[in-house]
Prior knowledge:
In chain A, strand 5 (79-84) and strand 6 form a beta hairpin. The mean pLDDT of chain A is 90. Chain A has one domain (7-100): 2-Layer Sandwich (NE0471 N-terminal domain-like), CATH 3.30.2020. By secondary structure, chain A is α+β, with helices and mostly antiparallel strands. Helices cover 25% and strands 33% of the residues of chain A. Chain A has a 3-stranded antiparallel beta sheet. In chain A, strands 4-5-6 form a 3-stranded antiparallel beta sheet. Chain B has one domain (15-255): P-loop containing nucleotide triphosphate hydrolases (Rossmann fold). In chain B, the strands form 2 sheets. In chain B, strands 3-4-2-5-1-6-7-10 form an 8-stranded mixed beta sheet, with helices on both faces. In chain B, strand 6, helix 5 and strand 7 form a beta-alpha-beta unit. The longest helix of chain B is centred in the C-terminal third of the chain and has 19 residues, at 241-259. Chain B is globular and about 60 Å long. Residues 1-7 of chain B have low confidence and may be disordered. Chain A binds chain B through residues 1, 4, 6-12, 17, 69, 71-81, 89, 92, 95, and chain B through 7, 9, 140-143, 145, 170-174, 210, 263, 265-271.
Amino acid sequence: MPEPVKPLSLRREGDGLRIEWADGTRTFATWRTIRAACPCASCLDEKAKPPDPFRVLKPSELTAGPPAPVAMKPVGHYAYQITWNDGHDTGIYTLEALRKLS
Amino acid sequence: MTPQMPGQKLSLPGVKHVLAVASGKGGVGKSTVAANLAVALHMYGQRVGLMDADIYGPSVPIMFGLGLVDQTRTPFPIERFGLKLMSMGFLVDPNQAVIWRGPKVAQAVGSFLAQVPWGDLDFLVIDLPPGTGDAQLTLSQQAPLTGAIVVTTPQDVALIDARKGVKMFQEVRVPVLGVIENMSYLEDAAGTRTAIFGKGGGQRLATEAGVPLLGELPIDPRVGACGDAGEPIVRRHPDSPVSKAFVEIAQKVVNEMLKQPTTAALPEVQL
């Protein structure tokens, strides 16, 4: 298994996340893209279903506005966990996933 | 003990290396290997702790001649043979079953790591339960694991699960230091070796994973007997071939650890 590239720095830039990687690559993804790519079980389950036109937004989703992170913490040596402004925090984004997002 | 919150990152400032001893399959002698390796590392001059992360089936107490203790009076970790020990078996009566769902297991493992004053150690050896479940995930996500060792027996049925163990550590970026093959062969008085469970399985797994085979441990009935009697064979019979193999493995582990680039923590995000 090849040694995966590690991030050197991660920071908020405008409405997204800028990552500088150890191999010199710089990636950027908007929070909206990152939120849409949430890899947690309930989001994956939601995405697998056909869209429900009558879905009612939860009050927390309504008041939160566009997706923005409240916290983003490293998980072990392999991932980051994001807590979103709507309270959702079960997504653990692996480094590979973050790199592919830009 | 207050539960450790999931997702909370732990730090063990006094511990140089946190080493997980794992296997995919149960019954391959992982706890025996972890206990003897911990003693061998101590004999090699290292300051060692041994944490039993097998919450449902703790075996560290019996292997060190200990049992249930009065937790209001006993300071943890418990010291024995120069090692610092922690296990669920110190807290729960051996005749009682721990019937818990995953999140409770994760909490207990987190508490053992974060709330037990391990002090200054060169190695904290963690005896993992078999499989790739809650205890493993908690440790991979919250503990500063510096390396993992996968224990297997030579036959295919053990290898198939050991492979999953290796895969898990690779997924969570914990360096696999190597494979230990247990119960490799039985040697009779004339020196003839019989490979009871087949031959070369550990080497195959190590080659596949691109990691070293740290050692092959012979079958010796005294290994189990010493474990049951509360004194690991490495200490009781240091001159037996299996004890020598353990000391060699300990030496390799120390060397491998020195070779490993320090797995620096991931950078914090500037939000």
